[in-house]
Write a structure and sequence with these properties.
mainly alpha, ABC transporter involved in vitamin B12 uptake, BtuC, 12 helices, transmembrane
Length: about 290
Amino acid sequence: MITSIFEYEFLRNAFITGAIIGVIAPLLGVFIVVRRLSLIADALSHVTLSGIALSLLMSKTYSWFAGVNPLYLGVVFSCTGAVLIEKLRTVYKHYQELAIPIILSAGIGSGAIFISMADGFNTDLFSYLFGSVSAVSSSDVNLIIGISVIVILVVILLYKELFLLSFDEEHAKASGLRAPWVHLIFILLVALVIAASMRIVGILLVSALMTLPVAASIRIANGFKQTLVLSIIFGEVSVLGGLIAAYYLDLAPGGTIVVLSVFLLLGAILYKKVKVKKSLYDKIRIGGESK
């Protein structure tokens, strides 16, 4: 039955992009969670919504803009929002967390304006909000493949720097690491991944894919690298399992992926509790036998 899914090109496109997103979203999500920047995905996703809404508005207003993929302008807005967050973090040195709600508010406000100018919601915008399997085009696949190559290469090249900044930023700076540049590169990668993920998961749900698999892996992993690997595994299971379930049950793909991620998280929490109780029981039993 599963092979019948791949008879259609749009479904093949969805599974290709889903498999890629299942890797790169949790990959960056681990660093986001460790650095306590979980809300940054929400901020950048709403900024991306503004770019997409503006692109759809321009395509209705100007015929020459109709053939442009809205994701392109969404990527531009997302990257611009990422740069502004970094700039605001330097402005508010003692209140750096303010940068995220400021950009989040700006994204929501401008998005609402562009949507109202376009006479409200339409089918295209709705698919970006909640994800749509049928909306994934060949150009989307090519864009996401390009973004994934960039993300994976940069993470490999800057792994040591990202690791140091995530766990001990002061030591990293003292050792001569150019922290502002690494911060900027990282947040631009996050912006690219958010823009790439919204076709499958949707703008309103993309942050869940970057945090829930990481939250599940943290509960059962031993060490950072194991957390990284398990996050990618949970991300892949969530995306591919969610797409299959959404296809056969006729459900929204984004919502199905996120709900499956929630179940994996609950399973990880339950597994950890059972493991701790079993370990405690074994210690008590061994202690009793030794007496």
